[in-house]
Design a protein that fits this description.
Layout lengths: L4 E4 L10 H7 L5 E3 L8 H11 L4 E6 L1 H12 L4 E7 L8 H5 L1 H25 L7 H27 L5 H5 L5 E6 L7 H10 L4 E5 L6 H4 L1 H12 L2
Parallel strand pairs: 1-2, 1-3, 3-4, 4-5, 5-6
Helix pairs in contact: 2-3, 5-6
Length: 231
């Protein structure tokens, strides 16, 4: 496949989230990692990424990146050759989660961003964090690089995001739905639902992985992506 491959990272993540995939695919494909701008809605973020993307591309989004990818499909389906949604959620945010965003933003703005990432977010990112100190360290480093302003804008965008279930019903390109078996943030049930909504999609569950299988289980993740690219 000669179509460029575009990855969209999750909340408070950057190119490091997809380092194993960049290594695996960049030798024979044009691979880009989107920069997620500090904008306050998913639609604004998706439009910005589309403005800097190739004319046509294969799209992979993980977590918030998957939410952005769904909006990119809604806005410009004719530009997307195939779609991979990893460890993500098509639903609008639950009110209980949305209500907690203000306190989290306040902590970030008060200089507690990294402490909050360590005590609130990262324990849910990785299956058995104690077994993956290098991945935990990478998550902290990515969050530090993104900073409090990114946390604030991304939190608001996630809080106000639309439900995309109707959008997914219109997807008509080769689609991979993938998640870690033990993802605490976006459980398997959400991915089964997406698989059911997208006719002909492939569902892959990565054993012994949490929310970040791209880093936790790169070999298995890359195999699933390679099979998707070959369809």
């Amino acid at each position: 496949m000669s179509t460029p491959l575009l990855f969209v990272p999750g909340m408070m993540c950057d190119v490091r989230l997809f380092a194993p995939q960049l290594d695996a695919f960049s030798a024979h494909l044009s691979v880009q990692i989107a920069a997620v701008p500090n904008l306050n809605t998913i639609s604004e973020i998706a439009s910005n990424i589309l403005a800097h993307a190739p004319p046509r591309f294969a799209l992979v989004g993980l977590s918030m990146g998957g939410i952005i990818a769904m909006e990119m499909w809604r806005l410009a389906p004719e530009r997307i050759d195939r779609l991979a949604l990893l460890d993500t959620n098509p639903r609008a945010e639950l009110s209980a989660v949305a209500e907690g965003r203000a306190a989290q933003i306040e902590r970030a703005e008060n200089g507690q961003l990294l402490d909050m990432m360590r005590d609130t977010f990262i324990p849910k990112y990785v299956d058995n964090p104690a077994d993956h100190p290098a991945i935990v360290a990478t998550c902290v480093e990515m969050a530090e690089a993104k900073g409090a302003a990114a946390f604030k804008s991304q939190s608001r965008a996630l809080r106000d995001r639309p439900d995309q279930c109707e959008t997914l019903k219109a997807v008509n390109v080769p689609t991979l739905i993938m998640c870690g078996e033990n993802d605490q943030l976006c459980p398997i049930e959400r991915h089964v639902m997406m698989h059911d909504l997208i006719k002909g999609s492939v569902l892959e569950i990565i054993p012994d992985a949490g929310h970040l299988p791209t880093l936790e289980k790169p070999t298995e993740t890359n195999k699933a992506l390679q099979n998707w690219l070959a369809t």
